[in-house]
Write a structure and sequence with these properties.
One of its GO terms (molecular function) is DNA strand exchange activity. Helices cover 46% and strands 15% of the residues. By secondary structure, the protein is of the alpha/beta class.
C-alpha cells in the first residue's frame, strides 16, 4: 500500500448529537492514532471531520457536512494520494441507496485514498480490491444492510408522526410531535408550550408595523431604534416577510410527511386569531403595497390602485429631489404625478403632469370626515359581488363533489366486475384536479370576505385626521400609514389631471374618482391652485 506521502484522516458521524456523549468518538480517535503510528503515518488532527446530527440516509452529511467538504477536496486533488480515511464503519460514510453509497466509496478509492473501518479493521483500496474482489461484494452487502435499516427506521418514524398528527386533528392526542423547528417566541415548560413575553413583544411590533404599511427595512430600523434585541429571533429585514407567513402566529404547526401535509391547530399559544391571520395574508398578497426607496413616499402612487382617467395606465410620482429644501421637504410643484404612458413617451392623448399635493390634501380632507367614510363603506347592492362569488364557488364545489361521487360509485361497480374503463379513470382524475382548484378558489374568496368583514366596523375618520399634519409635513412614518389606509379604503382611484373633459394645460380643475372597497363611487373636483375641493356622486361636467 503506497501511503508514504499521505496523511491519515479520521471521520466521525452521529445522526443524533446525543450519541456524541458516548465513548465511540474517543475509541475511534485512539484507533486512528494507533493505526497511523503502527504504519509510520501522521494523523492530521488539525482537520477534524465530524458530522453531528446529520443523517447519512438523507445525505445531509454530504450536502452540508464535513464529509461533503472532504469529497470536494478529493475531487479537487487537495487530498494527497496515499492518504487514509478512518471511519468506524462503512455505514458512517453512507446509508443512501447502495448504488449511490458504492459510488461515493469508489470516488474516494479512485483518488488513491484508502478507507479503513475501525469496527473490523478492513482496508479498502484499489490494490486490495483487485487482489480480493470479494471485499467489494462484502462492502456492498454492508451498504445494503445499512440502507435497509435506515429505510425501515425512516418508515417507522414517518408512520409514527402521521399517527400522532391524525390523533391531534381528531382530538385524541395532545402531546408533543417532534418534527421540524418550533417558533422562537415559545418555550417548552413541563411538556407544554408557553409564550416568551419579551420575544412576543418584538414579533407583535414587527406585525403591527407591517400592517401600518411600513417596508421591511423601515420596520427593522424602528425595532433597532426602540432597542429591541432581534438576534435571538433571527429577525432581519427580509425575515419580517417570512415571519408574517408563519402559521405558528395563529397557533398552528405545519408538518409535511411524504408529501402529505398536516395542519395542527392550536399546537402553540396563539398570537393572532384566524381572522387576523387571514387579514395579514391578504395584506401580504398585495405586493404593490410595499413602499419604494424614495425619500418622500407617495400616499396614492406605488400601491397599485391609482390610474390615469384618459389612458388607464397606472399613475406614478416623480419628486424633483435636487430641489429639496434644507428641512428635507419639497415644494408642492416639485412633487409631480403623471401616467406611465406619458412617462414612457407616448400612448396618452392628454399626457402631462401636475402637482400631487392638492390631490393628496383633497383626499385626506374628504376621508377625515366621518360621514364621508361611512358612506364609502356602505355595500353596493344587497350582498356585494364578493359574497355572491363565494356562493357561486360553494355551489361549484358541491357540484364537482357530486360528480366525483357518481364516478367513484361507477368505478367501484366496475372493479367488482373486473372492468375499469379508462375513460372513467381519466374523468375521475380530471374531476379531482378541478375540485382541488375549486376548493382553493373558494378558500381564497372566503378569506377575502372574512378580511373585509373584519374591517366593516364604523369608519374612523380620526385616524385620517391625526395623520393629516404628518402627511402635509412629508413625514415618512405618517405617509406610510396613510398608504395602508388608502389600500384598506379604496379599490381604485382615477385621476383626470385636466378635468373629465380635458381643458388643456391651463385647466382649472383636477377631477378625481374614488371607488371604495364596498363599490361606492365619489367624485372630487379639486382646484389646481387653491386646493379647494367639492365632492359629489355624479360625474362632473
Amino acid at each position: 500500500m503506497q501511503t508514504s506521502q499521505g496523511l491519515v484522516y479520521s471521520y466521525l458521524r452521529f445522526s443524533d448529537p446525543r450519541q456524541a456523549a458516548g465513548n465511540s468518538a474517543d475509541r475511534q480517535a485512539e484507533y486512528a492514532k494507533s493505526w497511523a503510528a503502527a504504519r509510520g503515518l501522521t494523523l492530521d488532527e488539525s482537520l477534524s471531520l465530524r458530522d453531528e446530527g446529520l443523517s447519512a440516509f438523507h445525505q445531509r452529511h454530504i450536502k452540508q457536512g464535513a464529509l461533503g467538504v472532504f469529497l470536494q477536496a478529493v475531487d479537487e486533488g487537495r487530498i494527497p494520494a496515499g492518504s487514509v480515511l478512518v471511519v468506524e464503519g462503512l455505514d458512517r460514510l453512507s446509508r443512501a441507496e447502495p448504488i449511490q453509497a458504492q459510488a461515493q466509496l469508489a470516488q474516494i478509492i479512485n483518488a488513491g485514498i484508502t478507507v479503513v473501518t475501525a469496527s473490523d479493521g478492513r482496508e479498502y483500496n484499489r490494490e486490495r480490491l483487485k487482489a480480493q474482489p470479494m471485499d467489494l461484494v462484502y462492502s456492498l452487502l454492508v451498504m445494503i444492510r445499512a440502507h435497509e435499516e435506515s429505510d425501515t427506521k425512516s418508515k417507522r418514524v414517518k408512520a409514527s408522526i402521521k399517527r400522532l398528527c391524525d390523533g391531534w386533528i381528531a382530538g385524541h392526542y395532545r402531546g408533543l410531535i417532534r418534527n421540524g423547528s418550533d417558533p422562537r417566541w415559545v418555550r417548552l415548560v413541563d411538556g407544554h408550550w408557553e409564550l416568551i413575553p419579551e420575544r412576543v413583544e418584538v414579533v407583535r411590533f414587527a406585525i403591527d408595523k407591517y400592517r401600518e404599511g411600513h417596508g421591511a427595512d423601515r420596520a427593522h430600523a424602528m425595532m433597532q431604534e426602540r432597542g429591541f434585541d432581534t438576534s435571538y429571533l433571527g429577525i432581519s429585514p427580509q425575515q419580517i416577510y417570512r415571519l408574517i407567513k408563519l402559521v405558528a402566529l395563529k397557533g398552528a404547526k405545519q408538518i409535511s410527511v411524504d408529501g402529505e401535509d398536516f395542519l395542527l391547530k392550536d399546537y402553540y399559544p396563539r398570537l393572532l386569531t384566524d381572522v387576523e391571520f387571514d387579514e395579514l395574508q391578504l395584506l401580504r398578497g398585495q405586493r404593490s403595497r410595499r413602499r419604494g426607496k424614495g425619500a418622500i413616499p407617495g400616499v396614492m402612487t406605488g400601491i397599485g390602485i391609482t390610474y390615469c382617467g384618459y389612458c388607464g395606465t397606472p399613475m406614478t410620482a416623480q419628486n424633483v429631489m435636487h430641489k429639496v429644501r434644507s428641512d428635507g421637504t419639497l415644494m408642492d410643484g416639485h412633487r409631480r404625478i403623471m401616467c406611465m404612458s406619458y412617462m414612457n413617451k407616448g400612448g396618452c392623448d392628454v399626457g402631462g403632469s401636475c402637482s400631487v399635493a392638492p390631490v393628496e390634501r383633497a383626499v385626506m380632507s374628504f376621508c377625515s370626515d366621518q360621514m364621508n367614510l361611512l358612506r364609502l363603506q356602505q355595500p353596493v347592492g344587497p350582498s356585494g359581488d364578493l359574497q355572491q362569488g363565494v356562493m357561486i364557488s360553494r355551489k361549484h364545489v358541491v357540484d364537482l363533489e357530486a360528480q366525483l361521487g357518481r364516478i367513484t360509485e361507477a368505478l367501484a361497480l366496475g372493479e367488482g366486475d373486473g372492468v375499469l374503463p379508462i375513460t372513467f379513470l381519466r374523468k375521475a382524475r380530471d374531476l379531482e384536479e378541478q375540485l382541488t382548484a375549486a376548493k382553493a378558489k373558494l378558500h381564497q374568496e372566503e378569506r377575502e370576505l372574512a378580511g373585509i368583514a373584519s374591517r366593516q366596523r364604523p369608519a374612523d375618520a380620526r385616524a385620517w385626521l391625526d395623520l393629516a399634519a404628518g402627511v402635509e409635513a412629508q413625514e415618512v412614518e405618517a405617509r406610510d400609514k396613510v398608504r395602508q389606509l388608502m389600500i384598506d379604503t379604496f379599490d381604485r382611484i382615477v385621476i383626470y389631471m385636466r378635468g373629465v373633459v380635458p381643458e388643456g394645460r391651463k385647466a382649472w380643475y383636477i377631477d378625481v374618482l374614488l371607488i371604495s372597497k364596498a363599490g361606492q363611487r365619489r367624485w372630487l373636483r379639486v382646484e389646481r391652485k387653491s386646493g379647494k375641493w367639492a365632492a359629489g356622486v355624479d360625474r362632473p361636467d
